[in-house]
What we know:
Elements: H1 14-19, E1 27-30, E2 34-38, E3 46-52, H2 59-65, H3 68-84, E4 93-95, H4 99-102, E5 111-115
Antiparallel strand pairs: 1-2, 2-3, 3-5, 4-5
Bound molecules: adenosine monophosphate.
Adenosine monophosphate binds next to loops.
Amino acid sequence: MPIDPTLPYDDNNIFAKILRGEIPSKTVYDDEWAYAFEDINPQAETHTLVIPKGRYVSWDDFSATASADEIAGFVRAVGIVAREKGLVEPGYRLMANIGRNGHQEVPHLHVHIFGGQKLGPMIAPEFAKRG
Ligand code: AMP
């Protein structure tokens, strides 16, 4: 179910548990600011998630309240993961879902990195506006 991104941070969300090491994940990258791991249900040949170490519900929350160091560290980590996975030359897609219309399911900010194949249109055809 999509979440309400205006709710307070829930320390029991699944990505908080991953950050605390309470449930397993396949680590891709880890530093002071960000953690990257493979999506459990990949939608593309490459489907990696990058999350900030801080307690942020969504992109909205993060962009409004995170420190400049946190934002820089997170954005740099996304770039590092994409480069280390060899995605730059063939190209890739970043996606951050926010709230109901964005169909965000986990209430801890995450950026999806998709790659390793052609990725098609930005919006699924059945939802895309035409004309
Ligand atoms: P979103 O709809 O943007 O909130 O995306 C949530 C993503 O988290 C989905 O792509 C899920 O497959 C992924 N996901 C959920 N639980 C786990 C988990 N335990 N480990 C890795 N990825 C997960």
